[in-house]
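Quick review question:
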């Protein structure tokens, strides 16, 4: 039985998935700034009704009695939402910032919440909220992470892990992971557009399948840095030719140009023999970059 009052700031996909998952009737309030505008107001109010949450007309109405606030706004509104909540948050309330933003943004939000007497928690949502809903993986960090773990568990969240004592650690894990995941998505789009234009899509994908090795990301990251340290300059030249090909096809080579620069910069460090492990290779690159700066 859920008894804790909770306020949701922002009621898009995540808020609706959470509130409608196991029935937060009677304990959940929600405010979404879309209700400030006449055009989307009725649709948003209908979403409140479907999720059986109490729709509020302002941030103040939503949070002034809540012991737990979940911030679920768009990334560009995360800091503004924290500032508005800080004006009305009751002392001691937990503010769980679940937005996908940089660690520095979360630290700035934490300063506002804590200055108002609230307890800020950095929360990273690590997979799509649909269909997982309350089973979605959550990473928590910050001084109040332990208390937030209990509060979120009481609401029905089932896959929660604390990852550190500092605000920004949870979001750093998510953002750095996104550098890889979203980067691969962008590279895929760039490559597949070119492959289709040249009529070689099936052969390219078959070649990738043939060369793909089953290994952990620990091994893959170590191998990738090894190749860049040893062959970065040569690989930059090869990718320069790939840039020419994409330009000739009319495909914008944004990711491939960046690959040229990254390969060339690491190759230009002339590090010699790579260290035998990932941590050593990272230290090699960082040390030489600092020396050359």
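Suggested answer, residue by residue:
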């Amino acid at each position: 039985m859920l008894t804790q009052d909770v306020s949701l700031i922002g009621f898009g996909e995540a808020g609706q998935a959470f509130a409608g998952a196991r029935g937060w009737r009677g304990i959940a309030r929600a405010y979404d700034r879309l209700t400030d505008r006449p055009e989307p107001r009725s649709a948003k109010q209908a979403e409140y009704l479907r999720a059986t949450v109490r729709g509020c007309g302002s941030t103040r109405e939503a949070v002034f009695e809540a012991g737990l606030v979940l911030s679920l706004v768009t990334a560009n509104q995360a800091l503004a939402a924290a500032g508005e909540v800080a004006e009305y948050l009751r002392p001691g309330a937990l503010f769980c910032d679940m937005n996908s933003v940089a660690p520095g943004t979360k630290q700035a939000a934490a300063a506002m919440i804590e200055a108002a007497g609230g307890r800020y928690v950095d929360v990273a949502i690590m997979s799509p909220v649909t269909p997982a809903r309350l089973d979605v993986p959550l990473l928590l960090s910050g001084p109040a992470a332990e208390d937030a773990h209990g509060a979120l568990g009481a609401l029905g969240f089932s896959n929660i892990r604390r990852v550190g004592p500092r605000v920004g650690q949870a979001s750093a894990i998510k953002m750095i992971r996104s550098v890889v995941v979203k980067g691969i998505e962008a590279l895929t789009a760039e490559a597949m557009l070119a492959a289709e234009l040249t009529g070689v899509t099936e052969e390219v994908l078959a070649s990738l399948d043939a060369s793909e090795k089953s290994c952990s990301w620990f091994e893959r990251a170590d191998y990738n840095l090894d190749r860049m340290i040893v062959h970065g300059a040569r690989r930059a030249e090869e990718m320069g030719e790939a840039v020419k090909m994409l330009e000739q096809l009319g495909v914008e080579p944004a990711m491939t140009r960046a690959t040229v620069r990254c390969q060339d910069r690491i190759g230009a460090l002339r590090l010699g023999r790579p260290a035998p492990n990932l941590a050593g290779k990272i230290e090699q690159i960082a040390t030489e970059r600092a020396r050359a700066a």
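Why it works: The CA atoms of residues 98 and 118 lie 16 Å apart. The mean pLDDT is 95.
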